[in-house]
């Protein structure tokens, strides 16, 4: 039986499962948890121990039809300025519950939405406050998501002045017919100009995000996009499968179902990209990332230090990630917290109490155990017995035997680990869903492939 037939037999092309950027997944977060736990979890962060910060800017000048992120459109900067003023209040409130001014930060990431929608003055105000309240530690990295169609040169200059180390450029696809179908027209020349500007300002690392499984996308058009992307010489690439979930993101109804490739066509597109990027010297990492051999993510993956969070794969070693802004998610050793999602609710919480967490989940020992197993599969394609065995007794063997019995053709079990066989990394999400004690078959997630 060939590999595709085996994947079909396991139901990969029919399955809809979480992406497992967290465990339990974010749709398992419960109301009220944030209100109960945010202050004690912040207070418990050890003074002087580096943390990571994520800042969410939920505004876009245009709403791309493919996007399922928590964003809203705006024609003016008025709502954005109001939002930044509230965000500054939240930054102050969170900092006061840590070690006041100066808690060290190892990572800072601005995401959205479109962070570069901010004016140069607004960006300067925001970053000045962050650097006042949190001190960059040794090895500090500052990354920003950038839409090349909304990236004024004075804003890029500000980001560089605040020592941005990595730019994450959104591309999605360079084919004009695909761009029109997803509501994101973005010429290669526009993208090239922003990349050149960033490098002129000394930004030393570049990441590009693009998608497979888009409407009207073909193997030929994806090959052309890949060649354009590689010509920009990015250090990292994130190749995500387009998640068509119009029941979650209403704007996706603008994308006709008939124009979307089927599940097996999606798989063929992903394999085309995987093989072509390897030819260009990129190392496959996890289920959907690629990086050049010198990149820190490749180095972390080779040492099994790569992990997964709400921004994708990372080499961030911090066990505390604090999300700031509407809908932002924080990760503490004790569990996950999510801020109020709607900007109006977020404003209300910050202006009345300073803190914005509402939903979340406190982790049990079993949650942590399953998370270690899932993280190993999603990051390394393998689970070391020793790495997951602490305090779990015979559960380790039960888990391994369970996976082996259900996915015998896809996994290999040795004395040291359970490992996905070569070529079966696309099964990682499906196996994770099998292990997920919280997974509900009735849920409607994105396709597993």
What topology does this entry show?
Layout: H1 3-9, E1 30-31, H2 33-43, E2 51-57, E3 59-60, E4 72-73, H3 78-97, E5 103-112, H4 120-133, E6 134-146, H5 153-161, E7 166-172, H6 176-182, H7 188-200, E8 205-212, H8 219-231, E9 236-241, H9 263-279, E10 283-285, E11 289-291, H10 296-302, E12 307-309, E13 312-314, E14 321-324, E15 329-332, E16 335-339, H11 343-353, E17 357-362, H12 365-380, E18 382-384, H13 385-389, H14 395-406, E19 411-413, E20 417-420, H15 428-435
Parallel strand pairs: 2-5, 2-14, 3-4, 5-6, 6-7, 7-8, 8-9
Antiparallel strand pairs: 1-17, 9-11, 10-11, 12-13, 15-16, 16-17, 18-20, 19-20
Can you give a write-up of this model?
- By secondary structure, the protein is an alpha/beta fold.
- The chain has 15 helices and 20 strands.
- The protein has helices spanning 3-9, 33-43, 78-97, 120-133, 153-161, 176-182, 188-200, 219-231, 263-279, 296-302, 343-353, 365-380, 385-389, 395-406, 428-435; strands at residues 30-31, 51-57, 59-60, 72-73, 103-112, 134-146, 166-172, 205-212, 236-241, 283-285, 289-291, 307-309, 312-314, 321-324, 329-332, 335-339, 357-362, 382-384, 411-413, 417-420.
- The strands form five sheets. The chain has a nine-stranded mixed beta sheet, with helices on both faces.
- The chain starts with a helix and ends in a 14-residue tail after the last helix.
- The model has no long low-confidence stretch (mean pLDDT 92).
